[in-house]
Amino acid sequence: MSTIVRDYTIPANDFTIAGEASSSVRKILSQLGVSPDVVKRTSIAMYEAEINAVIHGNGGMAHVEIDKNKIYIRISDEGPGIADLNLAMQEGYSTAPDSIREMGFGAGMGLSNIKKNADVLDIETEINKGTIVNITVFFKRE
Amino acid sequence: MKIPEIAQLIKAEICTKKHNPETDILSACSADLMSDVMAFSKSNALLLTGLVNPQVIRTAEMMDIKAVVFVRGKKPLESMINMAEEKGIALLATDYPLFVASGKLYKNGICGRGE
Lengths: 142, 115
Ligand SMILES: Nc1ncnc2c1ncn2[C@@H]1O[C@H](COP(=O)(O)OP(=O)(O)OP(=O)(O)O)[C@@H](O)[C@H]1O
Ligand SMILES: [Mg+2]
Known about the structure:
heterodimer; A: alpha+beta; Heat Shock Protein 90; 5-stranded antiparallel β-sheet; 5 helices; 36% helix; 27% strand; globular; B: Udp-n-acetylmuramoylalanyl-d-glutamate--2,6- Diaminopimelate Ligase, Chain: A, domain 1; 17% strand; binds adenosine-5'-triphosphate; binds magnesium ion
């Protein structure tokens, strides 16, 4: 199988569209016959990262590569960056405003949930430059 | 448990025109926080919530949740119904509050364990 590559734009602060990229990737994986457990783990990790880009990063881009063995997802934004990544990774830590809480987000669970569901997670972030979240999920666990 | 039986137990209106007759609910999650729903790992699950916005449907899709019950008289928007139908997710609306609706389903065998 040749590598499937997809790129998506993640619009800022648009909650009706937030999740479209993850939804599309989910469909591709299901069609490829990837196991439901892997589809779900990938969906959770990508969706949390996509929502973070919408809420915290002023929107951004999603780049996805799928080959025979794995899916690689890169969610990048040019938002404010994360000052203390260790702190941000902790469950319950959130800087989301009340308006976001009213939408059902902002419990500070996203990053740790990505970590739980991804096989490889690598976050690059720089203050006032942006954040890149790199997620890999293998189709079969070694 | 099938969707019509659930609707009957909690006196809910089924808002989506078509739903998968195969849908068999084994577990459930009650939450207003989508972050909490994202941490829920059971399959063949139902979501009960007081939150009404498109992200509820999107979250359900990502989590493989087959049906969503809106509680306390809240009704899903037309756009949410269309989105749910497209994804094969059933939407229900009941006047019961979250605790009572959850309790009625729990008592009748949906005890949150599932598979
Ligand atoms: N892309 C990003 N750009 C800037 N800051 C971010 C980004 N992603 C996460 N953060 C920071 O890290 C914190 C924790 O993120 P996390 O996803 O764990 O929680 P949350 O988004 O606040 O809430 P939840 O994910 O539960 O809805 C955020 O509140 C925010 O301060
Ligand atoms: Mg988050």
